[in-house]
Amino acid sequence: MTLVFSAWNFLGRRVCILLLVTGCSTIPNIDPSNDFSRSAWQDHHLKAKEIISWQIKGKLGFKSLNQGGSASIDWLQSKEQYQISMRGPFAAGRATIKGDNLHAQMQHGKEQYSNTPQTLALQLTGLSLPVNDLAWWVKGIPSPNQAAVSDLRLTSAGTAAEFKQNGWQLSFSRYRITDQGNLPRKIIGQRGQQSFIIVISNWRFPSN
Hints:
Blueprint (H helix, E strand, L loop, with lengths): L9 H15 L10 H15 L3 E11 L4 E11 L2 E7 L6 E6 L4 E5 L2 E5 L1 H9 L5 H7 L12 E5 L5 E6 L2 E6 L2 E3 L2 E3 L2 E6 L2 E11 L4
């Protein structure tokens, strides 16, 4: 199926500008090898890793070589099961992807598709979004399904400001204290000519 995307709306243009500005900003580099930052990061990483059920609501912006847009996002995760609902520039206006790490189904308008999560995300947005890794990245921690991160930079609170994993350059900001610890509200990823930004308006924890 060929998806026809509308022109970037105002939010999409803001996302593009924000990505450019963020790329030029300077994040203080706190050496993750010193005792304090290493200890704080390990504690934070362990606590965030134990969050297995959560829900986020916010905005997703995305841009590839030929496509781009923005959408509202409602992501419900329960262990390895998830349901991601998006409403935005898609031809039918709304799409829902649900499944697990290996297989997913997508309802897009009146059509339904089955494939791997990453393939369905590519079909919908034009980006090879690693859905399984994103489930960890939105919490500000590396995915255990990929190789170790590189270029890790920490904030003074011992949370991740930046790291590279699976070919993606990732940055995390707007941390807020939640019922399950200190979690980011803005995640930016870039890989070549692909980029995304997730701005989270609300974290919820149905059961943990």
